[in-house]
Design a protein that fits this description.
The complex is a heterodimer of chains A (293) and B (797). By secondary structure, chain A is mainly beta. Chain A is built from 3 helices and 18 strands. The chains are: A mainly beta (293), B mainly beta (797).
Chain lengths: 293, 797
């Protein structure tokens, strides 16, 4: 009987302790320390008459978002290795004109930015060489059967260009289509839309054995609709030869967006700004206008 | 080939030199076994007090000592947990002497004297830990489940990954850098229940030894540690059993003679019954109608052996274990069924042949099979249409190896070991199967890879002077990938200099190479960790480690004090690239994408250095240890963290373990453990900022203040592993009540895990809180195990 009572007492003790342990096991902890930094974003090119440098600062993540704290009054300079100029102040940061400091392919430029609250950052970029990339566009019409409806007509566009041989290359491509319609002989209606390519940021790893890179895209509006409602349609293709920093920055933004996936490694956004965040990079551009209708 | 010829020539010279010795030397050799069971004992100390020399038994209980012939030689055989045996014999000719030691520990500490157990100061080895199996059974653990890995994690220099994890992080190395061997078979995934328990059943084990530095040349293939475990052989004299019933699992071991004193058998099994408890509960829960879910794991160890006589013994052993998590759903109107499951398991088999050429030359030949596989499955059945949809994903590794080792003991001052191993690996990092009967899809993608790994070694433990012992050796390792071949010489050296009685300085150097890698997504031992080979693109991992230490042994009470510093560099360590995901299926059909793990990984360097203190009392009424480690582990990858150095996730500045067991009397044993560790380093965002994209800016004009600009709000992580989790500390207490019964012995154990209910961090999560127009982000810590009492019942007969 004594042994039985001891056993019951033991079990009671176990269940009491188990009940005490079963509480919600979540607590808030001190977050990582916040360090204020300048965020500089700038893409310069010989084709721009005005080059902008977007300057802001990072914001604390772990506090209520009551007010965005700006970096204060910012000043900056840019140098091409032989001379240095001060930058003009704009509402979004800084800028300079091509007559103040021409942006030339092959040259390296150093950007320095100061914030009035003691922040400082700097970065360099080397302008890619301007190349003729022989952009070629081909189109074909695709008829899409839609059960219960009339077939739809879509325009498939293949853009091809030649990779620059014997060097590591990074490219970016963008497109816009513009539709025109004249009403009553005077009024012109214009409709614009963005063209999305299967890949926006490309490297020469995407080239085939003939050094050609091909990208497919579609006009977002139905081609049948364009044919029926507009008088003319144009496609503008912009092909940029960029630095590696340009490519790494943009691809990392997309992957940073996936960082909440528990089975994904964290992907920080690329930055080449010393002492800050963001990117200072450059590109040269080639373009093509293609008449669809 | 050249190395093999050189090795054979060296062995021939040594054999000739010793064989040509004058005939006034005699050898005493034999086996040391446990009285009453016939179980051979590993590492028994054999000491000749009149000659100030000695030896130990090898992994098969064999010993050999060659001395000048004498008419009276006194030999003391001693082993922790056993009564020492002293023999005086006439050694004027070779003698075969087998010894049976009786188990039993006196509570009176004075019966255990300094020269009767192996002292750390006398061994040339350093950085190695031998854990008596009995000590594992006394340490209080989570839910009362006795676990080899959990006890090893309490030793200095050895850490666990996260709360509850059974992974080992040894001197800054990752969990794949540990060679875990059970009866010569490599075990790849040592975890049950997602890392909360290991798959080693202590009832089936005879010896456990972990080496974390100063590796002898016989060990190779991993950078950071070798955990060598041997299964018991089984009682050769009579049938015995032991088992236990706990809250999570139950176990049973049976051992006994097949032919008395010739052959024995051991079978040991363990199974959890979480599924038996969970399933009826789920059936009565609301919202779970039609759902059946469960989880279980099991282990099975088996071993049979046969003595053909003194010169030949044969052993066959195997391990089989599996974890399975499943969930099934039957739609109430029977329109469709769904089944999903996650399972993983190991199977190993070892056939070993011991052969004694003569009293000085012993050999072992092992043929080993090892298989590890994990899989994820999902099946959907449309009962109306009679069609199935099935997705399966598997990953695994299968080995077949042949190993040959010799022990040649020509004199007390030399113990030569030599041998070789060849392993044929077959890796299947990714196997993907998709069957969709409604769309007539049947796809299989399997990319197996083979690799051939081999090694040759020779080492000698040499005692040139009374107070100096050196273990020196060299290993040649080779790996054949698809086209590339890799080979390296790995010099090894460790030495002990005894300055005074029971005080020694030690030093070691080891060069190691590793041809098998585990790519780990998280710190928890999830079965999603992939085992992959060295390839033409992925080079072998390499390490160099130096260690310096001092050891002091004390006779009464029997204790040892050791302090050891180490510095280890590692090259070609692997890590996932930033942004890489497990099951890296890009947009579109995954089978149209080339799933290559090589594209997801990057290699870099690592540095680890630190200081380890250990005070260890091995015997007596009170036993236990205090361990403290001060260490740093850093890494650098060109493509991670912008090429800057960062702390490894498992970098732990301070690690403290206090472990004690006190035998109050013959019936009650108390145990307690307190651990402290600096928190793991994890990557946490520190701020947010706007990140505009360029083409949109260009198209809309370069003035980004236009309303249709496009930019992202992104998180800044500043540095990789920039944030320290809260420190981990915990107290466990246990009490055991032993009682002798007519049929054997029973033990009731009550233990409490995490006595003061510390909320140790398990993982962190960002939590977004919105309050009207205001919103904020908080960092939440999730803890796993609160105070957990448990009880268990174990028995022996």
């Amino acid at each position: 009987m004594m042994k039985y009572k001891s056993f019951i007492n033991m079990m009671l003790l176990v269940f009491i302790l188990t009940g005490y342990g079963c509480e919600k096991y979540v607590s808030y902890v001190d977050p990582p320390a916040f360090e204020k930094k300048l965020v500089i974003t700038s893409f310069i090119s010989p084709s721009d008459t005005v080059s902008n440098i977007y300057v802001t600062s990072n914001q604390p993540l772990y506090f209520f978002n009551e007010q965005i704290e700006e970096p204060g009054y910012v000043t900056g300079s840019i140098s091409d290795g032989t001379r240095e100029i001060l930058l003009d102040t704009t509402s979004s940061g800084l800028s300079f004109r091509s007559d103040q400091m021409p942006v030339i392919s092959g040259k390296t430029y150093t950007l320095k930015v100061w914030g009035s609250k003691g922040l400082y950052a700097e970065a360099t970029t080397t302008i890619p060489k301007q190349h003729e990339m022989a952009i070629n566009v081909d189109t074909n019409i695709v008829i899409q059967e839609v059960p219960g409806y009339e077939p739809d007509i879509q325009l498939r566009i293949i853009t091809e260009f030649t990779d620059i041989p014997d060097e590591k290359n990074y490219y970016s491509i963008a497109g816009r289509f513009t539709l025109f319609k004249t009403i009553d002989g005077s009024e012109t209606v214009i409709h614009e839309g963005v063209v999305w390519f299967e890949k926006t940021y490309i490297t020469d790893m995407d080239a085939d054995s003939d050094n050609k890179i091909k990208l497919e895209t579609w006009i977002s509006d139905s081609y049948k609709y364009i044919l029926q409602n507009y008088d003319s349609a144009f496609l503008n293709i912009y092909l940029m030869n960029t630095e590696e920093a340009y490519y790494l920055y943009h691809t990392s933004i997309y992957e940073n967006d996936n960082s909440d996936n528990p089975f994904s490694e964290v992907k920080p956004v690329y930055s080449n700004i010393n002492g800050g965040l963001g990117v200072f990079t450059s590109y040269t551009i080639d373009s093509l206008v293609y008449r669809i209708k | 080939m050249k190395f093999a010829i050189s090795l054979s020539f060296i062995l021939f010279l040594i054999y000739n030199q010793v064989s040509s010795q004058t005939p006034d030397r005699s050898t005493v050799s034999g086996y040391v076994k446990e009285a009453g069971s016939g179980e051979t004992l590993i590492g028994v100390n054999i000491y000749l007090p009149d000659h100030q020399t000695g030896t130990v038994t090898n992994n098969y209980g064999f010993y050999s000592i060659t001395l000048s012939s004498a008419d009276s030689v006194r030999i003391v055989y001693s082993y922790v947990g056993f009564t020492p045996e002293t023999v005086t014999l006439d050694l004027r000719k070779n003698i075969e002497l087998n010894i049976d030691l009786r188990s039993g520990v006196s509570l009176d500490e004075v019966t255990v004297t300094a020269d009767q157990t192996e002292k750390l100061s006398e061994s040339a080895r350093m950085s190695s830990i031998k854990v008596p199996v009995s000590q594992i059974k006394n340490v209080a653990t989570l839910l009362g489940e006795k676990d080899v890995m959990k006890v090893l994690q309490l030793m200095p220099g050895i850490q666990k990954g996260s709360e509850g994890s059974s992974g080992l992080y040894v001197r800054g190395g990752g969990p794949d850098q540990n060679l875990i061997i059970l009866d010569d078979a490599i075990v790849y995934n040592v975890s049950h229940l997602f890392g909360f328990f290991s798959l080693f059943n202590g009832d089936a084990l005879k010896s456990i030894e972990l080496t974390k530095g100063g590796f002898p040349a016989r060990y190779g293939g991993r950078l950071s540690s070798v955990l060598e475990m041997n299964m018991k052989e089984g009682n050769k004299e009579e049938w015995h059993g032991e088992g236990g019933i706990g809250l999570i699992s139950s176990r049973m071991t049976l051992e006994g003679p097949v032919l008395k004193n010739k052959s024995s058998l051991l079978i040991s099994g363990r199974r959890t019954y979480a599924d038996f408890i969970l399933r009826p509960v789920m059936k009565v829960m609301e919202d779970m109608e039609g759902t059946d879910a469960g989880y279980y794991f099991y282990d099975l160890n088996a071993k049979i052996n046969y003595d053909f006589g003194r010169n030949n013994k044969l052993y066959l052993s195997g391990y089989f274990g599996k974890d399975k998590f499943f969930i099934k759903y039957k739609e109430p109107e029977q329109k469709y069924n769904e089944k999903a499951g996650l399972q993983w398991g190991n199977a190993t088999g070892t056939l070993r042949w011991n052969h004694l050429f003569n009293s000085k030359l012993f050999s072992n030949t092992s043929l080993v099979f090892s298989d590890y596989k994990f899989g994820v499955t999902y099946k959907y059945t449309d009962n109306d249409a009679g069609e199935n949809y099935l997705v399966e994903y598997y990953s695994g590794i299968r080995d077949l190896s042949l190993k040959y080792d010799i022990d040649y003991i020509p004199a007390p001052s030399h113990w030569i070991k030599a041998g070789g191993i060849i392993i044929s690996h077959r890796f299947t990092p990714h196997v993907f199967i998709e069957v969709d009967e409604s769309l007539d899809i049947n796809r299989r993608q399997k990319n197996p890879t083979n690799g051939l790994e081999s090694g040759l070694y020779i080492e000698d433990t040499w005692q040139p002077l009374q107070n100096i012992k050196i273990n020196g050796g060299i290993r040649f390792s080779h790996f054949l990938a698809q086209k590339e071949q890799y080979h390296f010489f790995e010099p090894r050296l460790s030495a002990a200099l005894r300055l005074r009685n029971d005080f020694a300085l030690k030093a070691s150097y080891a060069s190691m190479n590793q041809y098998i890698h585990m790519i780990s997504m998280t710190g928890i031992s999830l079965p999603t960790d992939l085992w992959v080979p060295t390839t033409d693109r992925v080079r072998p991992q390499q390490s160099r480690q130096v260690a310096l230490g001092a050891v002091k042994d004390i006779s009464v009470p029997e204790m040892s004090f050791s302090i050891e510093g180490y510095y280890k560099t590692m090259n070609n360590v692997l890590g996932y690239k930033e942004g890489a995901t497990f099951l890296d299926f890009d947009e579109g059909n995954p089978l149209e994408q080339e799933i290559s793990w090589e594209d997801n990984v990057t290699s870099g360097k690592a540095w680890s250095y630190g200081l380890e203190f250990l005070v260890h009392k091995k015997a007596g009424r009170f036993s236990g240890w205090i361990g403290y480690t001060l260490s740093w582990t850093q890494m650098r990858f060109d493509s991670l963290n912008s090429g800057r150095k960062f702390y490894a996730k498992y970098d732990r500045r301070h690690d403290i373990s206090l472990v004690g067991t006190f035998r109050l009397n013959d019936h009650i044993t108390l145990s307690g453990t307190w651990v402290y560790g600096t928190g793991n380093a994890v990557t946490m965002p520190t701020s947010v900022y706007s990140a505009p994209r360029h083409p949109d800016i260009y198209i809309d004009g370069y003035d980004i203040l236009k309303y249709n600009r496009s930019f992202y709000t992104v998180k800044d992580y500043s540095e990789k592993n920039n944030y320290r989790m809260a420190p981990y500390h915990r107290l466990d207490l246990g009490i055991q009540f032993h009682k002798e019964k007519k049929w054997g012995e029973r033990t009731w154990e009550i233990s409490i895990y995490n006595v003061y209910n510390r909320k140790n961090p398990f993982f962190y999560e960002l939590r977004y809180v919105s309050n009207g127009s205001r919103s904020s982000t908080f960092l939440q810590q999730f803890s796993l195990f609160p105070i957990i009492p448990s009880f268990s019942y174990s028995f022996k007969f």
